[in-house]
Design goal:
Helix content: 40-55%
Radius of gyration: 16 Å
CATH topology: Rossmann fold
Structural class: alpha/beta
CATH superfamily: P-loop containing nucleotide triphosphate hydrolases
Shape: globular
CATH architecture: 3-Layer(aba) Sandwich
Distance between the termini: 13 Å
Strand content: 15-25%
Amino acid sequence: MVDSHKPVPVFIVMGVCGSGKTSIAEELQKLLGCDYVEGDQLHPPANVEKMGAGIPLVDDDRWSWLEKIRDTIIERTEGLYNKKEESSRALVVTCSSLRKVYRDILCQVPTDKTKVTFVYLKGSPELLAERMGARKNHFFGASLLQSQLDTLEEPNAAVENVIVVDIRPEPKVVAANILSQITI
């Protein structure tokens, strides 16, 4: 039986478009047998329309979205905090989390009940562009990749709780690599 007073581990799968956030998060969720939140589904319609039109988001577009993700993390972990089953006491969340200030917002959670770890999906600009070119039916077009790369502030393990993983392998392999580096 798990200590119900131990903080709920939250793994925020982050990176630029094309890094495989959704695919890898879904695989990680399966391995952990836990809850999952797709951050893109929490974007307000205006953001989706803007990105669909090929217009990059600016900070003012992102603040309410990041706060909604943070509030969802708080709500979901509150429910998980008292669960007794260890595997179901984790939460996987996707969010690009491109800048440190964005990650700081996502970490504004009750630390006695929630432990946030960022999982940074790192890949070369060439690989990311190739993946974006192969995407079908996604509101975030390949033309926005460069704006995300320009915005990206890679997480620093000296000041942030982060796991950095190479995105070249298949999502199942990447998820297994992540699992080998975490403790619940």
